[in-house]
Amino acid sequence: MYDLLRFMVKIYFLRLYLFTILIIGSVIVSNAQVISTKNAPKSVLKIFDQAKNQITKKNYSKAIDYLDKAIKKEPLFIDAYLKKGGLLYDQKDYANAIFNFKKALEIDQNYDPRIFQALSLSFENQDNYSEALRFLNLFLENETKLLPETVENLIYKRKQLEFIIWAVEHPVEFNPIPLSEKINDSTLSEYCPSLTADGRTLFFTRVTENQEDLYYSEKDENGFWQKAKIMPNINTFENEGGHCISADGKTILFTFCSDGRSGQPKGCNIYISEKKKEKWTSPKYLEAINIANVDTWNVQPSISSDGNIIVFTSKRKGGQGNSDLWWSYKSEDGSWGKPVNLGSTINTKGNEESPFFHPDGKTLYFKSDYHMGLGSFDLFRSELNAKGEWSIPKNLGFPINTKDHEGAMIVSLNGTTAYYSRGKGDVKFDKKQSDIYTFELNPENRAQKVGFISINVKDRETKIPLQAVVELQSNENLVYKTNSYLTDNEGSCLITLPITKDYSINIEKTGYYFYSERLDIESFKDSKSEFEFNVYLDKIIKDTAVVSKPIVLNNVLFESGSYLIKEESYFELGKLFEMLYKNPSLKIEIRGHTDNVGDNEDNLILSENRAKAVKEYLELNGINTERISYKGFGETMPIDSNETKKGQKNNRRTEFIIIN
After folding, report:
1. Is the pLDDT of residue 425 over 80?
2. Ordered DSSP codes for 279-306
3. Is the pLDDT assigned to residue 29 strictly greater than 50?
């Protein structure tokens, strides 16, 4: 779309024709009654020349007065109508421009086919797309007289008009609501929102005195946004904006545009800062993503929820068009790989910008001025499949998209709530007058709902935060996948995850007993998909006679009413084996428990057999039988109420104690 409009402006845009065609004298009179510059009386031509002289001086109202005089003197003077129509079009008086173009058609519809184009553009600017399409088709009937490149672009324009007509006739649900005045300052411009996974902190760009800076706002205990504050230790006297925040709110990537005064590389590049002990570190230049020693444009990063992918906008060699979307993967050593273009399905010969990679790990939102849309920049959605291929981008529809420029958009974890920027009182996006709005996406445009877990790990005795390994195993269609994470210096990590499957969680640190937890789909349905675990790990104390507290194996599962171990249990049993292998002096007792459903004696036997099954698994894998004992307790030692399904589930458990 961008190249089309640029081509139209440079090659055959309305004003080019209407302001120059009479000067070069290339008009061929096709009707003896038509009055043109070739056969008009000298007195009329003198008035016409006076109009052109006023145009040169940019006195357009006086020029129109002279053209009116020429028309009054010679009502069939077709060039005067065209010149006047062009001037009125330039002043955005489309209704009167159309009147004059139509008058020219009435005089001679074969005078020049570009009159049809002038009418098409005029009707389009009036949002009368049906008439715009009709006159464009009339213009295309003269295909043999046009350059092939012109025809190609006009055919694209016709498809766009057909799409606009369809989109307007099939609007999507859309009710944008401006955010609090604590975020949107009535005297300033705000745009490019970014949200933490818990939805409680919003980061955005604000323009003050023609300078972009990063701001943030937090929700209070009642869920209301507080007055926005400027980001500390980030902003300078130059421009900071076009950013993203990590899921846990502890890493920010942003665009810094410099003219070199600050000592940083010229151009717009991506920087990173981390929040440590409530303070943001000095921003660092991302060498692997930016292009060194080049005054270039690397902007608008979006980091995946696991922190391993950055999608960003760049104008660099190897792209499909002007600005493209690229991405970089983090290596195992923590370094970023060479950026790769997202390919021709996403990128076009126009401009693709403002990517947002949703935490579901597959949905990408971005804006483009070339994919089939309604005007300038439109918002689009694409999905990444299992083969690593992007789906054909889908326009989010009217009235989310309009003929004007739509600003960057993000979508919260629920896949439904969107935030984007738009002009104040007008849909047009403008850095000088823009606010941040929120709205609910219609079902066709939503991302997959995602939940998150917040984990805080500490030493049980000292309460000191621990850097521990957090492993998540998911089971989908009998395919098991394990992802590893590391808590930070504050013992914390936040993990986003799709809520379409069950998860086994294991937390371990050398010298401590491991901790396990289980999340299933039913848990997500009952709790708004938000979980917080404050985990206290116990140190492994060797060669002691003290019996430890029971450690529940939450991810050791059995078939209903059976002691047959489920396959997904092997993840946790492997951790138990590893602990025993690394600590050869430890001896444990496996304990089985049930709820109170069924016969007491049957439950006792079942619990004992389940404990025995765990013992046999460990022995088969090489743990000496003398280090493991087992015992069943049936329903005699509940840890929760048996009056609820959740309580019964907690009571059906397998655990172990240290018995050295």
Report:
1. no
2. EEPPPEE-TTTS-TT--EEEEEEEE-TT
3. no
Q: What is the pTM of this model?
A: 0.84
- Local structure of 239: helix, strand or coil: strand
**Per-residue pLDDT at 545:** 59
Closest among 460, 482, 461, 459 to 472, alpha carbons compared? 482
Rounded distance between C-alpha atoms, residue 55 and residue 313, angstroms: 41
Contacts of residue 302, Cβ cutoff 8 Å, sequence gap at least 6:
244, 310, 311, 312, 355, 356, 357
Rounded Cα gap, residues 48 and 68, in angstroms: 10
- Cis ω for the linkage preceding 399 (within 30 of 0): yes
Residues 452, 528: Cα–Cα separation, whole Å: 10
CB 304 within 8 A of CB 362: no
Between these two residues, 302 and 386, which has the higher pLDDT value?
Answer: 302
Strands 239-245 and 251-258 come out as antiparallel
pLDDT classification of 291: cutoffs 50, 70, 90: confident
Question: Using CA atoms, how far apart are residues 631 and 590, in angstroms rounded to an integer?
Answer: 6
Exposed / middle / buried, residue 606 (Cβ in 10 Å: 0-12, 13-18, 19+): buried
The arithmetic mean of pLDDT across residues 416-423, rounded, is: 91
User: 205 by DSSP, 3-state: which?
Assistant: strand
- Cβ-based neighbours of 510, under 8 Å, separated by 6 or more: none
With contact defined as beta carbons under 8 Å apart, do 290 and 265 qualify? yes
Inter-residue contact 497 to 521 (CB < 8 Å): no
d(CA 478, CA 455): 27
Encode pLDDT of 79-105 as tens digits. 999 999 999 999 999 999 999 999 999
What are the C-alpha distances in Å from 36 to residues 19, 161, 309, 478, 486?
A: 14, 33, 64, 80, 80
Mean pLDDT across the stretch 191-208? 94
* Residue 102, token pair as written in the block: 């139509």
Strand residues in 132-238 grouped as ranges (E): 177-178, 189-195, 201-208, 211-218, 229-230
Q: Which residue, among 86, 75, 74, 130, has the nearest Cα to 112 in the 3D structure?
A: 86
How big is the CA angle at 112 (ends 110 and 116), to the nearest 5 degrees? 90
Give me 202's structure tokens. 């919003």
Answer whether residue 376 shows pLDDT above 90.
Answer: no
Measure the CA–CA gap between 502 and 519, rounded to whole angstroms: 6
Q: Which residue reads 């969680």 in tokens? A: 505
- Given this model, what pLDDT does residue 478 score? 54
Q: Cβ of 463: how many Cβ atoms within 10 Å?
A: 9
- Written in H, E and C, the secondary structure of 492-533 is EEEEEEECCCEEEEEEECCCECCEEEEECHHHHHHCCCEEEE
Which residues 6+ apart lie within 8 Å of 40 measured at CB? 48, 74, 77, 79
pLDDT score of 498 more than 90: no
